[in-house]
Amino acid sequence: MRMSSSFATTPVPPYYTVIFSSQRSAGDKGYGAMAERMVELATQQPGFLGAESARGGDGFGITVSYWDSLEAIAAWKAHLEHQVAQAKGQAQWYAHYELRVAKVERAYGKSPD
Amino acid sequence: MRMSSSFATTPVPPYYTVIFSSQRSAGDKGYGAMAERMVELATQQPGFLGAESARGGDGFGITVSYWDSLEAIAAWKAHLEHQVAQAKGQAQWYAHYELRVAKVERAYGKSPD
Prior knowledge:
In chain A, about 30% of the residues lie in helices and about 40% in strands. By secondary structure, chain A is of the alpha+beta class. The first copy, chain A, has one domain: 2-Layer Sandwich (Alpha-Beta Plaits). Chain A has a four-stranded antiparallel sheet with strand order 2-3-1-4. In chain A, β2 (about 50-55) and β3 (about 60-65) form a beta hairpin. The relative contact order of chain A is 0.29. The interface between A and B is large, with 40 and 40 residues. β4 (about 95-110) of chain A pairs antiparallel with β4 (about 95-110) of chain B, so a sheet runs across the interface.
């Protein structure tokens, strides 16, 4: 679930974010292909601003996606192909997950020289 | 930078979060020990609700911490020992990082049976 670059390039706040923390269950079971497809599909959605993702060797991962509105997040959640992936995620891919929707109010960083 | 459990147990929203995305530079240079100490110290701060962290083999990682107020986040940022760590992070440990402060408005998940 890697984007072309690790870091998302986001506009000046405010904007919205979905923080998805998950523990993968054992075995791929089609997860890798679906995860790639979901990233590809997400980037095509109206209001998508970017995403960042990391998963350790223990299978615990965090994916943070950024959106210009709560409506864009709701539309992505309701997307049919994404709904199929969500159902598979619940049933097969994730032993545990937590999802949080938040409004980004402030942002800063250090970019490479 | 692993907590005793991977998932943070957070209250019903609203609460605040700091999303810290980072690319580690090569070599440990004291990073591991300091990261552990910062987790230990963060958990002792007023208003700290929990944290989650994942880093892939490529050195790209995301740490999300949760707080009960913006004041608690500001106090943690200003903590003297944390300021030393921040300076080392900028100078030595991170090739690139992005930090976002956000207000969690909604949360749900799937816990193990």
